[in-house]
Amino acid sequence: MEQKKLYTLLVYSENVAGILNQVTAVFTRRQVNIESLNVSASSIPGVHKYTITVWSNEDQIEKIVRQIEKKIDVVKANYFTDDQLFIRESGLYKLSAPMVMDNPEISRTIRRFQANIIEVNPTYVIVQMHGVTEDIISLYRALDTFGCVLQYTRSGRIAVTRGMQEQVSEFLEQRENER
Amino acid sequence: MKHERITGAKALMRALQAEKVKTIFGYPGGAIMPVYDALYDYTRGEKKCFDHILVRHEQAATHAAEGYARISGEVGVAIVTSGPGVTNTLTGIADAMMDSTPIVVIAGQVATAALGTDAFQEVDLVGVAQPISKWSYQIRHADDVAWAVSRAFYIARTGRPGPVVLDFPRNAQVEETDWEPVKVTFVRSYVPYPKLDMSAVRQAAELINGAKKPLALVGQGVELGNAQRELKAFLEKAGIPAGRTMLGLSALPSDHPLNVGMLGMHGNYAVNLKEQECDVLIAIGMRFSDRVTGNLSTYARQAKVIHLDIDRSEIDKNVKTDVAVIADCKESLPAITALLTEQTHQGWRDSFRELDKKERQKVIEPAIHPKDGPLLMGEVVNEVAGQSDDDTILVTDVGQNQLFATRYFKYLRPRSICTSGGLGTMGYGMPAAIGATFAAPERTVCCFMGDGGFQMCIEELGTIMEQKAPVKMIILNNHYLGNVRQWQDMFWMRRKSFTRMMNPDYSLIARGYSIPYRAVTDRSQLAEAVAEMLTTTGPFILECAIREEDNVLPMTPPGMDVSQMMLEI
């Protein structure tokens, strides 16, 4: 069995109800867990972009992507490894304010990770961080050793490709010419 | 321009008319009543443009639509109500998805204001249908009807065909719209006919030209693409022997010299063994089902694989391909043929004969010409095949009846077989046969069923009676769910767990429906009984008392290598 790797899928679809269901059903059918998922409008009017991360292998991910792309309202689906993408995630950390006040090491840790404090009040402090998955998790682990974390959440991944081609807009342009 | 104001239900009628629908299989109910009210005018009198066939169960509406589609090459249509009406169609929708059959199922739905409230007969149809349909859509406004219906038919019939589901809430059926016809011929996110890649064509031709032992595997894609002629030209130019999948049986006539039989678990012996010997395997419009390949890890490892398919997601799904030609085979086959050198491969083709002879002697002759003992399924099929016209349509149910029927019937005309391949749906036979009679009223339709499958959609005898649908029903009665029983005997220590079945008196059932009936219990009556069935106008039930514990052979046990196919147990 091939080793599992983290893949990022970029899926573009028409903006109609029920697409998310169709996309996730392809994973459900094979009992593959989605690690993270981000859905938003893309730069192309009327087209939504899904960024999905999943642990899989080349053979399986290729079949999954083709079955997603086969859905009528899916415009394009591709899979990438991390080296082919610019990747960003966000983390939010809600910390106990008294503990942050008591222990200057906590603030130093936040600065060391280049995270920002975006809200302070007598009971809690909100810290935000943008970066790659590992850094966001590392900051959580570091803060957790102080026992000061009240809540922690990490966003789904967003990503843009490193390649020169803008595949989706080129595809749509070509399709319009075929009309 | 002034438009006519009509209801959504009437707009549906006009949209169906625009799609040239002739036959609708359906069953009314609460949430689809406005549509049925509109249908009243369109099925009689001056305005008549549809025949509506009232089935007895919604599942049958979808199977009938499938049978209709398979034989006519057009889109089959079913109309049902919401809730249980449409959940009953899910088996047919899944069946059509597996077997690439173009049908459109239109279902009533509660009014949009009531959606999500667990209203009476509400079910989240789009939600449940999505994974088993090619496209599912809810028509929320009467204004959307023309567009949605045209898009539904476009998607169902183009590319790799499949089932489309339209969920039609009641309010959209009754509200009015300015009628304006719409013709969808383009969906930007959907590429039904991928552009033929000429470099792949050249690579494929090169491999075939260099092959010493080429073997073609012909699937239903050839029929769906109406490429029977292109297939023949391709095979004949390069002298390539061809096996056919169960769904592809009539893509190449049985009597064609390059036909080497049926693929698969219970297919023909030679072609199964030769899959493990060929040097170039050319799969045409087929999907390497596990029933064809057996053990994938050993399947055709020695061969270079060329896969012609219209659906990119089939490439490398089960069998790794060396050359993929992703296009409609109506286009790709002639392109490859043009680059082929003429060959006969006579020695290679002759090498099938020795194995054929072995199969004929060990399996076929004993199955179709038994000397004594009770009747066998194979001989009944053989008798019907022998006496019926060349353009007869074979419909089967699922199980031993299907395996014997597909093995021993004849396929001399395109679109001559209706069978549930991928999903293996018992109960498919009778309603699909009804659909087939409406698709081709001039052709004889013979439907082989076991006593199990016959009872699974037995209510459709009502439809057959009412429509006088000329289905020749052959019940191969062995008092068993025969195929499961065969597996229990072979792989489950002969523990026959709930496969023996008590049967009703079918003569009384036939009488209840006023359908001519005849029973055959002895070999000496068979030929004459089959003749009576085939010459009787309208429907007929021929019940054959079959040897109880007969087995379908040859057989590749599940998960084994195709070369381990057994001629005897």
Describe this protein's structure.
The complex is a heterodimer of chains A (179) and B (569). Chain A has 179 residues and is of the alpha+beta class. Chain A is 35% helix and 39% strand. The N and C termini of chain A lie far apart (44 Å). The mean pLDDT of chain A is 95. Chain B is built from 23 helices and 20 strands. In chain B, the strands form four sheets. Chain B has a six-stranded parallel β-sheet, with helices on both faces. In chain B, strands 11-10-9-12-13-14 form a six-stranded parallel β-sheet. The mean pLDDT of chain B is 97. Chain A binds chain B through residues 13-14, 17-18, 21-22, 25, 29, 62-63, 66-67, 69-70, 72-75, 172, 175-176, 178-179, and chain B through 126-127, 130-131, 134-136, 138, 155, 186-191, 311-313, 315-317.
Features:
heterodimer, A: 179 residues, alpha+beta, Alpha-Beta Plaits, 5-stranded antiparallel beta sheet, 4-stranded antiparallel beta sheet, 6 helices, 39% strand, B: 569 residues, alpha/beta, Rossmann fold, 3 domains, 6-stranded parallel beta sheet, 23 helices, globular
Q: Layout of helices and strands, plus pairs?
A:
The complex is a heterodimer of chains A (179) and B (569).
Chain A: E1 5-14, H1 19-29, E2 34-41, E3 47-56, H2 58-69, E4 74-80, E5 85-96, H3 97-102, H4 104-112, E6 116-120, E7 124-131, H5 133-144, E8 149-154, E9 158-161, H6 167-178
Antiparallel strand pairs in A: 1-3, 1-4, 2-3, 5-7, 5-8, 5-9, 6-7
Chain B: E1 5-7, H1 8-18, E2 23-26, H2 33-42, E3 51-54, H3 58-72, E4 76-80, H4 84-87, H5 90-98, E5 103-109, H6 125-129, E6 135-138, H7 145-157, E7 163-169, H8 170-174, E8 176-178, H9 198-210, E9 214-218, H10 221-224, H11 228-238, E10 242-244, E11 259-262, H12 269-274, E12 280-284, H13 290-293, E13 304-309, E14 323-326, H14 329-337, H15 346-368, H16 377-387, E15 393-396, H17 400-408, E16 417-418, H18 429-439, E17 445-450, H19 451-456, H20 461-467, E18 471-477, H21 482-491, H22 506-512, E19 517-520, H23 523-535, E20 540-545
Parallel strand pairs in B: 2-3, 2-4, 4-5, 5-7, 6-7, 9-10, 9-12, 10-11, 12-13, 13-14, 15-16, 15-17, 17-18, 18-20, 19-20
Antiparallel strand pairs in B: 1-8
Helix pairs in contact in B: 1-2, 1-7, 3-5, 3-18, 9-14, 11-14, 16-17, 16-23
